[in-house]
Sequence to fold (80 residues):
Amino acid sequence: MLTAIFLTSIILFTVAFFTYGRFLDRRFEIDDRRETPSHTDYDGVDRVPAHPAVLFGHHFSSIAGAGPIVGPIIAAVAFG
Fold:
């Protein structure tokens, strides 16, 4: 039973990913050829293009770094 739930959820998430991705593509007119503000407004201080590895590190630390802080707060609010 657990395997069926797992496989069903994987299929649903995959369908949702592609369906919602197409919706966002149409809604926000995403174009990979368009330059980002770090390239068009480059000033050498605040608007500087980041290396993909550095950018991934920033995204990961923003998500994973808040876990030890937010987790206990949510638990305290939920369970008193």
